[in-house]
Write a structure and sequence with these properties.
By secondary structure, this protein is α+β, with helices and mostly antiparallel strands. Helix content is 23%, strand content 25%. The N and C termini lie close together (8 Å).
């Protein structure tokens, strides 16, 4: 099974940038999208009939939102989770799909924002709530957690750690939140297979030709329950697939749905 996660930075926008061709090239069985910035009205514009589509749009137009496209139909899809009590259901940041043998959680984690205005919320409320939600799900079956986590976990996960120690996405608090989440959920699939790989990023600023120069951050993850970790066959970043400031990431895992 191939699971791909991609922050598309606007689904309507990326549909004009070879999105469908890119999806066909990657050929995921399950595609998790973040920051879709669109509601269900965009469905007719997505000519991927082989996928069943589930949307959790933000109430505010042009903001946030998540979606799951699945060739393998889930038993159930829940867009209203315990995380809604933290941000309200209006931001559309989490979708949980239930399969027979695992839960799939697609998440778009809030950015701590300019001047770290949202850092306290992120650290003390969101990260704690996400870890608790995953921990509760794991009492029933293993969890796979995918999405834009908006944090580079370790120094190896961004090109300029010294200069960004107090930047959103690389504060001690955010990194601690990711450490705690991994302790509750499982393993970072990419680092499990490539613990020492450098210059492997999933997001680049649009400024200063950052992507061309590969000055980036790895802030998108596929996290796998420890009970399933030995089933990971490959982990990847599709760095050459364009259309967003994020690259698609994902894994192949030997797992029956």
């Amino acid at each position: 099974m191939r699971i791909v996660s991609w922050n598309v930075n606007g689904l309507r926008s990326i549909l004009k940038k070879n999105f469908c061709e890119s999806v066909e090239k990657m050929n995921p069985d399950i595609l998790c999208l973040q920051e879709i910035k669109a509601d269900e009205s965009v469905i007719p514009e997505v000519p991927l009939p082989e996928y069943e589509k589930f949307f959790n749009p933000a109430k505010r137009k042009g903001y946030s939102g998540t979606a799951i496209f699945a060739k393998i139909s889930p038993k159930n899809v829940n867009c209203r989770t315990t995380m809604d009590s933290l941000t309200g259901p209006t931001e559309g940041r989490v979708i949980v799909a239930e399969y027979a043998t695992f839960w799939l959680v697609n998440v778009y984690t809030p950015n701590s924002g300019e001047d770290l205005k949202r850092l306290e919320f992120r650290h003390k409320i969101w990260d704690v709530g996400m870890a608790k939600m995953v921990e509760n799900l794991r009492t029933k079956k293993p969890v796979i957690l995918c999405g834009d986590m908006n944090v580079a976990h370790c120094e190896i996960d961004l090109s300029r750690p010294e200069a960004n120690h107090f930047s959103p996405g690389f504060t001690d608090e955010e990194r601690e939140g990711m450490t705690n989440l991994l302790a509750k959920c499982g393993v970072d699939s990419f680092r499990k297979l490539y613990p020492d790989a450098k210059n492997c990023y999933s997001w680049w600023s649009y400024r200063m030709r950052a992507r061309e120069r590969n000055i980036g951050w790895r802030i998108d993850y596929a996290i796998v329950d420890e009970l399933l970790a030995d089933k990971i066959e490959s982990a990847f970043i599709f760095g050459k697939i364009l259309g967003s400031d994020h690259a698609p990431i994902g894994m192949d895992i030997c797992l029956r749905p």
